[in-house]
């Protein structure tokens, strides 16, 4: 409530925030977490009797405070498929900046609620480029294993993979990759693989095998609510306020920090504004959420001593999407698991790692679909716009050409080998590349730049960053395992020396 005092306040309940809460609680410290999205475990089911709708049937539950859906694939067979919805605290935010839409999870559990669960540890030889100031030996000996264990990372059973009709799209992806001489690899995931096999056998309610993923999974996925946050709340030392948005943090005359929180309703109206005092504050609002807060607080005089690195070093992990049109003898399946389980690795030669992704349309599309992660050097900055009061991002749409060029090192070759072409009907009329978005925002409060080498914000004792904003723009693979492992490393040091 208003005027409350807490030893530690964590802003955001995604990967970084959940790691911080669990480890601080285990060290005996009381933690309060605030999350602007809903606690989906307590939300009433919708008209389909479920909490989360399918990807093929988005509705009011799907998007954060939009009046029209903004599906990542905006078109099907050339036709626009978005539709009007009532404004609601839905689970997926498509946050629009001038040059890019950034997709993010909203709710207790952050991105784990909406993501594909692909849990990839980068190749060790690439780590130096990802986090140059971090001891790689320590990360690979201690913190990556710790993160993988706590997240519940596992792999598809290779025998079932060969049999199930739900991964025909992945097997076609493998055949095409290998015929063009590319390395193809299984990708681990936090989805419960035994549960998925049971779905296939018809013995449990279907989720991944029933078109559920980016608007939430009703079953099967080990979200943070089932892993880190379940453990954290079980200590009795962690409490969570959902539908609470942090808007300001400033040093308090009496010590610690005054944090302003807006409690909102599911339509987005502010119901109450509260101020709480926190001894220490962890920024874990995600790359965009943390960067926006810090840039605004520096510019408006709440935290003027933050350094000039705040807001810098933001990247999109080189995300770009594309579909290929297969021949009639290469169907990818009218049923598809929403959880990708394989990828094509051309990182060293071409700067691209491509997930073989599903297109769960419920009918045969003869399409192979991919989300590529590329080795781009472009970095954008956040800045406070005093006219609008908003925080802008300097990303330029044209910068995605670098990602397209790298992705083409894989797909031009596959098209040539297979005698196939790109699909032009998925992102608009005659538009091949999904180059308007990212699922993987990274940076904005980069480690050892805006913060020290453990996430302590420079200029203020007791303020920390512990999420994807610490990572300078690219992880070479899907990011959440690296975000989690870095948070494990940093919180261990912070508990040992600052608390
Ligand atoms: P987040 O998980 O984004 O958590 C931040 C939380 O803070 C959110 O819950 C947000 O609502 C809350 N918040 C923000 N601002 C405030 C505020 N002012 N006050 C209170 N709360 C606030 N990554 C992978 O590794 N593998 C995948 O398969 C994968 N698939 C993805 C698919 C989709 C559709 C999307 C959108 C992302 C995917 N990602 C994937 C990316 C991954 O989910 C993110 O990298 C990860 O969630 C980032 O973790 P984080 O701790 O930095 O922040």
Report the end-to-end length measured between terminal Cα atoms. Answer: 25 Å
Strand content: 15-25%
> What CATH architecture of the domain at 5-41 and 223-314 and 442-498 would you give?
3-Layer(bba) Sandwich
Bound molecules: flavin-adenine dinucleotide
Mean pLDDT across residues = 97
Structural class: alpha+beta
Number of E strands: 21
Q: Which fold name is given in CATH as the topology of the domain at 5-41 and 223-314 and 442-498?
A: FAD/NAD(P)-binding domain
Note the total helix count. Answer: 11
The gross shape turns out to be globular
Walkthrough of the structure:
With 499 residues, this protein is α+β, with helices and mostly antiparallel strands. It has a domain at 5-41 and 223-314 and 442-498: FAD/NAD(P)-binding domain. α1 (15-26) packs parallel to α7 (228-234) and α1 (15-26) packs parallel to α11. It has helices at residues 15-26, 127-130, 136-151, 158-163, 168-179, 193-201, 228-234, 286-299, 347-350, 401-418, 480-498, and strands spanning 5-11, 31-35, 75-76, 79-80, 92-96, 101-105, 183-186, 238-242, 244-251, 257-264, 270-283, 320-325, 342-346, 352-357, 367-374, 382-384, 391-393, 421-422, 433-434, 437-438, 463-465. It starts with a strand and ends with a helix. The chain contains 11 helices and 21 strands. β16 and β17 form a beta hairpin. Strands 1, 2, 8, 9, 10, 11 and 21 form a 7-stranded mixed β-sheet that branches. Strands 7, 12, 13, 14, 15, 18 and 19 form a 7-stranded antiparallel β-sheet that branches. The protein binds flavin-adenine dinucleotide. Flavin-adenine dinucleotide binds next to α1, β2, β6, β9 and α8.
